[in-house]
Amino acid sequence: LQTGDFLDRSIDNLLIPSERVAHVQIGNNLEHTLLVLTKTGYTGIPVLDPQYKLHGLISTPLILDAIMGMERIEFEKLDKIAVEDVMNKDIPILNTNDSVRKGLRLLINLPFVCAVNDEGYFEGLLTRSAVLKQLNSFIYK
Amino acid sequence: LQTGDFLDRSIDNLLIPSERVAHVQIGNNLEHTLLVLTKTGYTGIPVLDPQYKLHGLISTPLILDAIMGMERIEFEKLDKIAVEDVMNKDIPILNTNDSVRKGLRLLINLPFVCAVNDEGYFEGLLTRSAVLKQLNSFIYK
Ligand SMILES: Nc1ncnc2c1ncn2[C@@H]1O[C@@H]2COP(=O)(O)O[C@H]3[C@@H](O)[C@H](n4cnc5c(N)ncnc54)O[C@@H]3COP(=O)(O)O[C@H]2[C@H]1O
Ligand SMILES: Nc1ncnc2c1ncn2[C@@H]1O[C@@H]2COP(=O)(O)O[C@H]3[C@@H](O)[C@H](n4cnc5c(N)ncnc54)O[C@@H]3COP(=O)(O)O[C@H]2[C@H]1O
Question: In a mutational test of the pocket of ligand 1, which residue from A19, A23, A42 has the highest number of ligand atoms less than 8 Å from its CB?
């Protein structure tokens, strides 16, 4: 059961590349963001700027919590709130050269982690399913 | 790296027990369901009946997709749609005696799997984080 080798490789081959990652741009409001989430079917996605610098993560729980009123969910507020005011900016990130071992540790508590290059530009996502799939294939040898 | 032993044990010790699992009851509408999801912060939960038989899974993507109109998300429809008309009924389930190995295979494609007992009653959830945590601890020996 030689997962050691696999765990010490870089996450690079496991990433969903940025061109296949759904995201929203800063400057958008929560209504636009919720539409993107609804159309893509994802529950959380990165928030980027036009240069593909990573600014944070936004999710349906964060959005719904932001418009939760005393008696009901206040959907009319969605187009009045900017995504950057609600997104989670306190997020761990990986470098594309980091090991799968390091990624696995972060994926215990997060469904996905963003990977950036040395210049800080968004390169892709490391997801739980990618790592679980690999672990599962090693276990079957 | 002896994960073999761990993988062949039952999932029982890894489950979130039913009393700690947020859920909705059949007979509720999507508005109530979305409130439960917002308050608990989860993106998907089981749908049960009063006897704790498992009926399906409901998630924010399923709800938002159900009220997605041609031009906007039609939030006013939430209290007019029953959760059983939108939930996913085609779901794999585990028995509490099933192995972690069997659970891991299902968790490649699903964030969590419901576990039932021999009578078909809901007993708990097997989540990706529970399995990743265990795998991670074995890798560090
Ligand atoms: N369109 C689809 N096709 C097939 N399976 C789908 C799917 N949408 C969701 N799933 C399944 O459901 C899991 C949870 O999705 P969720 O959107 O909550 O959570 C996702 C989402 O927040 C984010 N994510 C994944 N792929 C993405 C992408 N291409 N763009 C943006 N975000 C992505 O990473 C999280 C974890 O993804 P992971 O693959 O581990 O886990 C996914 C995957 O197993
Ligand atoms: N209140 C909280 N405290 C700490 N961490 C939290 C959290 N809420 C979410 N997370 C983290 O985010 C992951 C995705 O949560 P999500 O609600 O999309 O997806 C969850 C949710 O749909 C369901 N789930 C987990 N615990 C549940 C519970 N007690 N009741 C009902 N559903 C639960 O299983 C999925 C996978 O859970 P998993 O733990 O693998 O993965 C969780 C966990 O790592």
Answer: A42
